[in-house]
Design brief:
Number of domains: 2
Helix content: 40-55%
Strand content: 15-25%
CATH topology of the largest domain: Rossmann fold
Number of strands: 14
Oligomer: single chain
CATH superfamily of the largest domain: Response regulator
Low-confidence stretches: 1-34
Order of helices and strands: EHEHEHEHEEHEHEHEHEHEHEEEHH
Structural class: alpha/beta
Number of helices: 12
């Protein structure tokens, strides 16, 4: 599946600079609250920890703006998600926010909203349909670049295992493409060897465990780094290595800054995760949905291209989180709780 591109493609220098300061978000007029505004939030699944944060923060901000939010969870069922969308449209939703399970099949939901004249925001996962009204999310290409770049800075040579996400998720393809762009020169030189490259259905930690176990058996444990595209799969990989009692440390990437991942980082079994400002993202999405539901335009100076069409967008910047900056990132933002983390670890491993 073809990755989306920002209107102006970033070079690597600009990407690195971007991570040092927040992406300039659009100034936006606060909509006048109206209790008659109904907004539908269609979510693929809550199996991954981060999505509950998105839902909670979206509902909180929308309520502050006077909107009624109906959340529908599809549990990875594309036909059910379409039915849920049609139900929301028939019930008078003035805007839809969509986290599509399958970006291709999500086109049916975009078409249904378009027929009703209801604006549709793609949240985090872009459905490549020119009728999408707005996109808000993290620049997935930047996440993939950061994951591979950070790993290769610490392990420029050795055997790598890649655990990519679901083939049905457009972001999984974007991540994998960007990771391979970083790895390819090192692979071509013979410095890095990709000994296993797996696509993991629905980003399943259980399947990641099985595939990692398979890779370890095939290489007799000779693995230097695991490029896991999210924290759930990182957890599966770490468990597989712990069960086999590998004699040396293996570097492991992640994404989402899940609580379990933060604890693994402090416990020195996961190297880093990619933190995305989900609270800000969800709040901005709620504000955009209310604005569009009122028939107004969301102010932004960013666009992404779908074919010949440019779709207005807000893209937020990802950040690498290691044991050295946990307090300054996920704890400072209130995304993770210091006391909860401390209860899970001995004092000498608490974040500094």
């Amino acid at each position: 599946m073809r990755a989306f591109r920002a209107k102006h493609r970033w070079d690597f220098v600009f990407v690195i600079l971007l991570f040092c300061s927040p992406f300039p978000l659009a100034a936006q007029d606060k909509p006048v609250p109206s209790g008659d505004l109904k907004i539908g939030f269609l979510v693929d699944s809550l199996k991954v920890e981060r999505w509950q944060t998105d839902v909670d923060q979206f509902q909180k901000r929308a309520a502050e703006l006077g909107a009624q939010v109906q959340v529908e969870i599809a549990d990875g069922n594309d036909d059910l998600q379409l039915q849920q969308a049609q139900k929301l449209l028939d019930s008078g939703a003035k805007a839809l926010v969509l986290v599509a399970h399958d970006a291709k099949k999500g086109m049916r939901i975009v078409a249904a909203a378009n027929r009703k004249g209801v604006p549709l925001i793609c949240y985090e996962r872009l459905v490549r349909n020119p009728d999408v009204t707005f996109f808000i999310g993290i620049n997935a290409a930047a996440v993939g670049f950061l994951q591979a770049y950070t790993l290769t800075q610490q392990a420029p040579k050795g055997n790598y295992v890649l655990l990519a996400g679901s083939t049905e998720d457009v972001n999984a393809h974007i991540l994998h493409d960007e990771q391979m762009k970083v790895l390819k020169p090192l692979v071509d030189r013979g410095d890095i060897k990709v000994v296993a490259d797996y696509w993991i259905k629905d980003w399943s930690p259980t399947e990641a465990y099985a595939r990692m176990a398979e890779a370890l058996d095939r290489t007799k444990g000779d693995v230097t780094a695991v490029l896991a595209s999210n924290d759930g799969m990182a957890g599966g990989a770490v468990q597989a290595m712990q069960d086999r009692k590998l004699p040396r440390k293996v570097l492991v990437s992640g994404q989402d800054a899940d609580l379990a991942a933060i604890i693994r980082i402090l416990d020195d079994t996961q190297t880093f995760t990619i933190y995305k400002p989900l609270v800000s993202q969800a709040k901005l999405a709620a504000e955009a949905a209310v604005t569009l539901a009122k028939g107004q335009q969301v102010k932004t100076n960013t666009e992404i291209s779908v074919g010949e069409t440019s779709i207005p967008a807000i893209l937020l910047s990802p950040v690498v989180v290691t044991k050295d900056n946990i307090k300054q990132t996920v704890i400072k933002d209130g995304f993770q709780n210091l006391e909860t983390i401390q209860k899970s670890l001995p004092k000498e491993k608490w974040p500094q």
